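Late entry, evening session. Most of the bench is empty. Finally got around to the prediction I had been postponing all week. Sequence below, unchanged from the version circulated by S.P.
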Amino acid sequence: MKSDRNERLMGQLSELVKLQRYKVHEKLINHPELYPGQPPLLFQLEREDGQTQKHLAEQLRRAPATVTVMLKRMESSGFIRREADPNDLRSLRVYLTDQGRDALKELREVFQELDRQAQKDFTPEESQLMSALAQRMVQNLREY
């Protein structure tokens, strides 16, 4: 029985993530060119602008080729710019543009709105507990 509960929990969490990605994309009507997998890349650049493509791929846990395709699309949409690394001309560094920063502001608002909706009937204690449990699950899977 415990295994059934765990499978349901992981299925529910998977559904939660899929639904959140869908809702984020649905709410970004001002940025139809921003695809569902791209917000994490924008947030990663916000934390550390000017990363190499290789480092971005590692941080996002994505194949370098996948990140290259994402970056090409995001560059043509004006969210990022890529420049040769002056210390290693074989590497490209990735930077947010003003348009990318504007998209991040909207993304943050959308994520906050979705958080409020998802937790609308939660007490502050329940929200804290849910966050702590989710963080423990993330840590457990990272250690696996």
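Two things to note before I forget:
The chain has a mean pLDDT of 90.
Residues 2-27 form the longest helix (26 residues).
Will write this up properly tomorrow.
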